[in-house]
Design brief:
There is one protein chain. The chain is globular. The protein has a domain of 94 residues: Rna Polymerase Sigma Factor, Chain: A (Orthogonal Bundle). The chain has nine helices and no strands. 73% of the residues lie in helices and 0% in strands. The longest helix is centred in the N-terminal third of the chain and has 23 residues. By secondary structure, it is mainly alpha-helical.
Length: 186
């Protein structure tokens, strides 16, 4: 007999203290949580710590999950809050990326330059955005959550989240234009 595939079954088992169920949920969602955290924090080490802390909290607070949305939404909300905590900490050193395209030329072979330069430009533009905008873009455009699910993760109403997401897309377009503009135009 195979086990049910729905998250509710596994969350119920975690509530009962079943560490194998937590391991199952960890394997199912670890890459998604890591990708989300890494995109927000831009640090592999910090993203790995967020993944660990997220699943510790899942195990600790699973009894409090009472069907107010999906497990995945709850999980990403925990990760989101942990990322925000880390983003608010003072940083020892931040190195600005003045010319992402020039940095890309130094780091990669020329056949990969266009794609890598574009990635650097997008990352540099994202870094210029307010953290709320980055979160909105990550949840909708990268993680593929619906507006309702993303709103639940951020603690906003669906209407407020949709508005935030539209402003975030415009801000990203503006930041990309500013980075792509020749020096004499900027």
């Amino acid at each position: 007999m195979s086990a049910p595939s729905g998250d509710d079954y596994w969350v119920d088992r975690v509530r009962q203290g079943d560490s194998a169920a937590l391991e199952f949920l960890f394997r199912r969602y670890v890459n998604r949580v890591f990708g989300f955290a890494h995109a927000l924090l831009r640090s592999r080490e910090e993203a790995e710590e967020v993944v660990t802390d997220t699943f510790i909290r899942v195990f600790r607070f699973a009894p409090e999950l009472r069907g107010q949305g999906s497990f995945e939404g709850w999980l990403l909300r925990i990760a989101h809050n942990l990322c925000l905590d880390r983003l608010r900490r003072p940083r020892l050193l931040t190195l600005p990326l003045d010319d992402p395209a020039a940095a890309a030329r130094l780091l990669v072979p020329s056949e990969q330059l266009d794609r890598t330069a574009l990635r650097f430009l997008v990352e540099a533009a994202l870094d210029r955005l307010h953290e709320d905008y980055r979160v909105a873009l990550m949840l909708r455009d990268v993680e593929g959550l619906s507006a309702r699910e993303a709103a639940a993760v951020t603690g906003k109403t669906e209407t407020a989240f949709r508005s935030l997401h539209q402003r975030a897309r415009k801000a990203l377009r503006d930041a990309l234009r500013a980075l792509d503009a020749p020096e004499d135009e900027a």
